[in-house]
Request: fold
Amino acid sequence: MLILGLESATAQVGCAVGGHEGVLASAHSSRHRRHAESLVPSIEFVCRQARVALTEISVIAVDIGPGLFTGLRVGVATAKALAHALRVPVIPTSSLDLLAFPARFTDRVIAAVVDARRGELFSALYRPVPGGVARITEPRVSTPDDLRAELHALGVAVLVVGDGALRYAETFRELLEVEVCTHGLDHPSARDLVLLAHHRALREEWVQSWEVTPTYLRKPDAEIGWATRAGLTAPPTPTAESA
Reply:
């Protein structure tokens, strides 16, 4: 069973091909966040490197976020189009799960943190378990200060990973019990996506292409900015008197 993994939730875009033999080939790029221009050529490249034809792919795995709106749309749309054309299922995976997975060998609680821009973070907490990690909080959007307060309230040692951890490293380093990972764990990896998806594929934990939806956690920046400039607020809830 061959799996094609597509990752585009953050500033990095990448893909990988693999199966029971592990990851056969992968490619990642973070230059100028040109996800739409980079993803398809990257797919062609890793397939050539792995000597795999697209028609040999059995499952598409895709990072569904949370993450940057444009990148998510590119990755999810590409995954759905390929899955539909190849008539194969899809394994959607959280970007936060992908960030936490390579940190599974720590003895600390893991905080996976994605930079959401506009002074906010996407995050979730995990604990290491045999063979991987287990999520202990639901993905959420918060400010760096709110997340710092949450980590402090835990009262246990925490390892913080992700590009959000790097951007707000000084905020988290104020806590003695928190360690910020500064090397190698700043973005979700397509390699890890393939490894995680392979275990799920063996259990047939997949969905059809039309069932895949991105996890945004908030409205797109462009929509928020338009509403702010227009001075709009949410419409009042209709009442029996006003209806």
DSSP finds eight helices and eleven strands in the chain. The first helix runs from residue 35 to 50. Residues 3-95+187-221 form a domain with the Nucleotidyltransferase; domain 5 fold (CATH 3.30.420.40).
